[in-house]
Amino acid sequence: MTYFKLITLLSLYILVACAPNARQEQTTQKDYTQFVKPLVGTLGEGNTYPGAQVPFGMVQLSPDTEKWQWGAASGYEYSDSTIYGFSMTHLHGTGIPDMGDILFMPTVGQTHIRPGKKDFSEPGYLSKFSHENETAEVGYYSVVLDDYNIKTELTSTNRAGMMRYTFPASDSAHVVLDLSHVLRFDVVWSNVQVINETTIAGMHQVKGWAKERYVYFTAEFSRPFDAARIFSGGKEVKYDSYKTYRFRSSKEAAGPDIQLVADYQTSEAEQLSVKVGISPISTANAMKNLKAEMPDWDFEKYVSVSKNLWNKELAKFEVEGTQNQKETFYTAAYHAFMSPTTYFDVDRNYRGLDQNIHECKDFDNYTVFSLWDTYRATHPLFCLTQADRNANMINAMLAHYQQSPDKLLPIWSFWNNETWCMIGYHAVPVIVDAYFKGVQGVDWELAYEACVNSATHPEYDATAEYEQLGYVPYDLENESVSKTLEYAYDDYCIARFAKALGEEADYKRFSKRALAYKNLFDKEIGWMRPKDSKGQWMADFDTHHFEHLGAFTEGTTWQYTWTVPHDVKGLVELYGSKETMANKLDSVFAYSSGKDYKGVDDIHGRIGEYWHGNEPSHHVTHLYAYVGQPWKTQQLTRHIIDTQYGNEPGSLCGNDDCGQMSAWYIFNAMGFYPVCPGSDEYVITSPAIPSVTMTLSNGNKLVIDTENYSDKNVYVQSVMINGVEWNKSWFSFNDIKEGGHIHFVLGDTPNKEWASAEEHYPPSMSTSKL
Amino acid sequence: MTYFKLITLLSLYILVACAPNARQEQTTQKDYTQFVKPLVGTLGEGNTYPGAQVPFGMVQLSPDTEKWQWGAASGYEYSDSTIYGFSMTHLHGTGIPDMGDILFMPTVGQTHIRPGKKDFSEPGYLSKFSHENETAEVGYYSVVLDDYNIKTELTSTNRAGMMRYTFPASDSAHVVLDLSHVLRFDVVWSNVQVINETTIAGMHQVKGWAKERYVYFTAEFSRPFDAARIFSGGKEVKYDSYKTYRFRSSKEAAGPDIQLVADYQTSEAEQLSVKVGISPISTANAMKNLKAEMPDWDFEKYVSVSKNLWNKELAKFEVEGTQNQKETFYTAAYHAFMSPTTYFDVDRNYRGLDQNIHECKDFDNYTVFSLWDTYRATHPLFCLTQADRNANMINAMLAHYQQSPDKLLPIWSFWNNETWCMIGYHAVPVIVDAYFKGVQGVDWELAYEACVNSATHPEYDATAEYEQLGYVPYDLENESVSKTLEYAYDDYCIARFAKALGEEADYKRFSKRALAYKNLFDKEIGWMRPKDSKGQWMADFDTHHFEHLGAFTEGTTWQYTWTVPHDVKGLVELYGSKETMANKLDSVFAYSSGKDYKGVDDIHGRIGEYWHGNEPSHHVTHLYAYVGQPWKTQQLTRHIIDTQYGNEPGSLCGNDDCGQMSAWYIFNAMGFYPVCPGSDEYVITSPAIPSVTMTLSNGNKLVIDTENYSDKNVYVQSVMINGVEWNKSWFSFNDIKEGGHIHFVLGDTPNKEWASAEEHYPPSMSTSKL
């Protein structure tokens, strides 16, 4: 490094550290939303949706092109050519469908209350559309419904959405509300009321992935409908003295199969808007939300408000790079800041896990906790850029815990439901990571109690047998190896938390549990291997058997053996040497079984047996830093970013999983990754963008920049942090929590000297160092 | 009358009028509850229930012996010999089943989650019982379940109930909660949670007669259960790694078919109690209700509280007579004061017709409005003895009106539902009657608006055609004659209300409508007759055709022709003379078609074509007062009371209809009846008890006594009111509103001179006298 360079860098560091306000003002004037491509991830298995949502917003107003297919969990699949309508809620990037609540569809001509078939073998309200007539921007979506020549535009606030329809001239224009629509699952009940000639309200209850979910809405139409017809079970709800015997109101109905059709006569290019507030509590609250957030009909204003909200979030990153790099990065940030979603009404009430109405007086409540995914990088990212939100999210988890009849932290929860999806108790690393990263505003005593109780529930997923035997036996429990490994990691987090709080007995108990992974490592074969309750290894063990007799979760031992993020040194010891382990790691990336396993068709992004499309692999490339070969990490994360991320609809190789795939990108694009949330380590890799300045939650800036950045220069030659030469393959939260400057020098060949000496390895968390 | 007698009567009058407090103190120390026989009406068509309820209480905790039969609408039928269990809610005396929510059943031995069959062809939790081991008292019910040798005792507060089970020694004792149980209809959803080892909570949603009804509960057990097992769809809800794949909590479940079984080991004669709070809002509110009303386990205390509450209501009547008379009277009072029922939680919130949660800040909310029945005598009785409650009930109707998407007053509503059962808009006479009887605490302007809107809804039951044509045409509308007649009466009430409020245009409009009955009176045959929209009488008209082509409601023209309570003089004019009308009336009582019509099997109590078992006949005997033959009224009401009321399970000849049959009794037993609520007239008849002192809502006493009372002395010889000889066949509300004294002299032959002169007829409400 030249003297001039050093001075320049130091100057920049001082500028950044001392003038955050001036800089912030400058950056927030830029329009970062232009770089966001909401269609990224809509083709294939990303399972994203292209509609309108504010950051972490309760409403996700988006077109549904698919209703039944498991693989189109967000309701939108880019390869589709028909649209069912526009519904108010969607899940971002999950592997299981649900939501798609409160579907509206504008039509002209004959009234249809059924969607019909996508191949038009049965007529219905659905319509063809073309991507040529489709626009997806931050806070704005539009499409032309070809069957009706109706342009539909969408925008949203936190708890409300607005649809603007541009109709052709028609004496039979309609807006169809189909309360029986939900993605994949069943509406068990619904109701609707016509409140006046511009207002309707109602609800539906869904028995879906979430077993009991209630969505209420109130909708206002920009001009009075000529008529509003309600249908129940396919028949119009209307009094007929002879047929219905007793009076029936035409203004209300309830049942599992309810539609409402608002009728209009429209002139050419007439615009009609519908704004909809939603609530998990009541139509009255939906109306409160609507009135508070969307008081008028200024569509453009709400688009602008949404863009401003997003710009504020996106401005946390000032990226320099190509258009493609910026689009990839800001789209990833957009996707990372969609979930968890706001889950309380403007009066601060929400429906809790116990189905009772609770007030979140002291925190903002959130829901959609895909924790098996998001503990890895999403919440650690929030620790850096969204610390207050992360505190609120943790408070939401603690409220869930208190409302849970089992006194368990959320596993995979959304709205007022626990789905029990996936394994482990990964609210724990989210909590512990936040605790050690100085997140404020959480009752840590309560959080600690919740962590311990969640890890020791007598009936939950064989945690009792796990503690007794030191592992989960495959003859007694499904997914036994994955559970053992993930429990051990979660327990490491609890042990660390216990030590910090002075809970010595718990510290010892969970430190012991944290080493459980050792009991399933078969040194003979060098893989984690299922063991039965008598201590016998599983016979006929096939390392390529997907979910081997239920011993692995969405993978094989090739992915899962590496799930020891908290004690990589211990894993190295099990292998006998770092070289042995490095060779084993090499084999993961080099060897492919060639099998296309049943059940893994949504996991792509494979490099050998490294499956980037699913989370168990997400920290595996970074383990080279623990065996003295950090250049392999550098090459691999750059390779993954080059090949498996981008700015196209098909650019995500697996479910975005509520932002985890995107958060992985953001970290690695910036040149570091939290291999072990709950610790304070980040492993350094090679940045995938020339430069980024990240504004931390405290307002300070972390500047990351590179020298010699190019597509080919994927190897780190040297690193300087805050003006100091940095030879370690990692840095800690403390090193960056006040902001600062990380400077990378890159090159096209590995610098095998850099950070490869044992003293430069990440310390890892062998239990003695807890 | 001797001088001595006069002095005695005057002294009594002065005593009563001047010393109400002393008298009240004295009377409330008496135990009137001893005379109440809750089993009255449980055999046959009375459709009462024998369980525990406080006056107008939200909880009706009672055994269900029947679940499916239409005819056992209250869930209990005396002729049954099996019990399903004990549920928290019941409808009193209705013709249609619903409720039976939240059923608990104690058992021993094998676990049953299904009731089984009453003939034991399928085993289940239901049990044989015998009336020998059954006790039904005010606020207390007990029965021995023979299959299990378990004594069950019930008591209740307003919003909570307690069950005390006395078990035999058993190592497999159970308390079964079957959330799928409801009378007759479908549970569409339910959920349950085990909160701790003594507390459970949950809800079920019923699609019943009421289309969308939500009942929440929280239940506490007096000692911890050994286990609580939840069943869904017939299977125990329990995690099994291999069978359920993902974790399932054993502490909660949701679905349409949920049971919970609490397991115990019991010692001989061990008592276990369960107390249950209910709420239309949430389990949290059910808990609030329970904690507020039933804080401890003192079963006897709550029985005592219930008896005291009832005694306070029953003490409004100080009856002298035989044991049978007292039992009949106080049981009737008991039945009259069960409905409408309290419908708000202790925090004053309730679920409204719009399914939103509303607070009743300024009134006590009530529900169960069987208005086609209760406008006749029940609410007029409340005007005398329960004026404040009646005001609250009217306020509840106005809240319903405001929440109604149709802006209609209740027709037949319960909980948060309008059932649209029966015809007319009979909240109107309830409101107008209360207005003219000085009930305080109602927004009468709002009430007036509600009355007018309810009478002029453009879609409701052909009221538009009715106004246009002057009658409801039978070719366009079902129940056309009944509707015409009842609308005309309701419209008379509105006209009167309009005049009082100075609404002249409405006064004219509704005065004209009040005469609509004339358009359907066929002078040729002397009966009301269906007419079509072209003005043609129905051809081939059979006066005995039940519900003739849908022209009559639960009757024939023999009952319905008399539905002109507001203008009997006008009806006399149509007949041409009072003698002609009297002869026609005579024929009603003398002639019987002998037909047992389909659909009328629950209407008994027939005297010719007078059907006391249903409401359209209820004022018919009193019409003799309008044609100069009051002795016929006297003889008939005494005859009806002698033959169709009593103190036995079979003593009610038709549905008690939320107290209307019982209120009819109370009025007539006291010697007067409100033929035309909304007017202030009461027609005098012959008292059926020797003496009664009624405490009015204002605390004043109305003393009614008789001379020469005997079974045979059914004819009024003379009447004295407040010491003044009374020759009119009627008196007005003003005559008694401050209390007073009505003295009857009775004899065994008609005194045809008394009140038979034209100037002594009730004035009737020919429209010129509105």
What features would you describe in this structure?
The structure is a homodimer of 770-residue chains. Chain A has 770 residues and is of the alpha+beta class. Among the domains of chain A are: 1-30 and 316-344 and 605-763, GH92 mannosidase domain (GH92 mannosidase fold, 2-Layer Sandwich); 39-310, Beta-galactosidase, Chain A, domain 5. Chain A contains 19 helices and 38 strands. In chain A, helix 7 crosses helix 8 and helix 9 (427-436) packs antiparallel against helix 10. The radius of gyration of chain A is 27 Å and the shape is globular. The two termini of chain A are 37 Å apart.
Summarize the structure.
By secondary structure, the first copy, chain A, is α+β, with helices and mostly antiparallel strands. Chain A is 28% helix and 23% strand. Among the domains of chain A are: 1-30 and 316-344 and 605-763, 2-Layer Sandwich (GH92 mannosidase fold), CATH 3.30.2080.10; 39-310, Beta-galactosidase, Chain A, domain 5.
